[in-house]
Amino acid sequence: MPLKRPKPHPRKPRADAQRNRERILEIARDAFTRSGANVSLDEVARRARIGPGTLYRHFPTRDSLLEAVYRTEVEKLAAAEGKFAGSMPPVEALRAWMLLFVDYIAAKHLIAPALNNIVGGPSKLFETTAAQIKGAIEALVKRAVKSGDIRPDLDPLDLLRALVGVSNVASGPDWVQSAKRLVDILILGSRPNA
Predict the structure, then answer these.
(1) pLDDT digits (tens, 9 = 90+) for 9-23
(2) Contact 69/86 with Cβ under 8 angstroms?
(3) Both 173 and 114 in a single domain?
(4) What are the backbone dihedrals phi and psi of residue 58, each rounded to the nearest 5 degrees, phi first?
């Protein structure tokens, strides 16, 4: 009877490979935000100061890079909830997170058309990321309600809908500033009646 070899444990990526991956994602996010999803992958590699082969080893297609950028941004947004909640008063944490959400919308706005074209559709991707965003805003609102800073009848998703709505009717380059002003209006309108 032949001896069975134990399956090797998956190796963690080397530190330099992990740094390369993170740098690629950062450069790609900035490039997609500035120039749209059709930015040259060779340009992303050049800006990241790596060879094209290194980029393609991490992200074999444009779609895989777009998806990774999107997932990374959502993960940062979701993680910011804990950071803000741990270091700010409840209503200020909610405000800071909503401002960050506006920046997220701006970046997603530019890459969303490309994400919609990913083979197999982005529905699974959006389902997962929507749950992360929903969980973050619900936790922040719950904390602000508990502190008495926000009305208990507030639906956390209404705050997101208002911000997304502003982005959907964006008719000029200043919609981001308008959305950020709206954050303060929404917070003020969410306060308990005196």
Answers:
(1) 566 667 887 888 899
(2) no
(3) yes
(4) -80, -40
